[in-house]
Amino acid sequence: xxxxxxxxxxxxxxxxxxxxxxxxxxxxxxxxxxxxxxxxxxxxxxxxxxxxxxxxxxxxxxxxxxxxxxxxxxxxxxxxxxxxxxxxxxxxxxxxxxxxxxxxxxxxxxxxxxxxxxxxxxxxxxxxxxxxxxxxxxxxxxxxxxxxxxxxxxxxxxxxxxxxxxxxxxxxxxxxxxxxxxxxxxxxxxxxxxxxxxxxxxxxxxxxxxxxxxxxxxxxxxxxxxxxxxxxxxxxxxxxxxxxxxxxxxxxxxxxxxxxxxxxxxxxxxxxxxxxxxxxxxxxxxxxxxxx
Length: 292
Description:
By secondary structure, the chain is α/β, with parallel strands linked by helices. The protein has helices at 35-46, 58-72, 86-100, 123-151, 171-191, 210-215, 235-246, 276-279, and strands at 26-30, 50-55, 76-80, 105-108, 154-158, 197-203, 257-260. Residues 208-231 are annotated as: Disordered.
């Protein structure tokens, strides 16, 4: 009988960190209405912070804010905004300050993605992803920086591991996330003397998220990714990293990129056959799910 690989456990931050480490703190999170960013927001709130979650769909935000408040016993405020429109972000920041009086932590998590080769992606589609991910991150920084300086707070930017190697069908996201990594590094250097930290979390494949569902293979495939940790990622894995990076335990960590991928980047292989997928994109169209 072959030996079984060890599967690393999924743990909750509350089993590791004190419940009140963020008491009196306020989180501002773009993309916080769903997925990874909602999971990070919930974890931060479970340790005592209040929060504002920002997104374009007010109905989804309102429901998420209600559920987050009920689950954590803290206050979560929904703020409708589009990260591509600086004025709407400034309005969301104003709403947060009027409600809570401060902003300590910022998660820049708004993102968009889909699968397409360079030969097929339109100029507008490429521009849209850059506007949401990279420019949206810049706009969020600009809207919040004065308040984060005042609180001697911290930023977390949600990136990816795609641009560490050439990843077919992901030129737009690879360029956008590389830009986010660079933004965070400069922010750390420029704002460190003001007492502000800035770091990046780069998730690997995270199960149960909308992104994973839409960007995974449309049909079963024999090309299985390798996970040295024994499993796909869980939202709690990203949430735990966020709690750590915002905590005083990470007070000497800034300007860094933290991949949270169970080591999978070292073994990553795309599910689309190569070079067939780039030589004949039409032949793999039935393997690709819709846009995110």
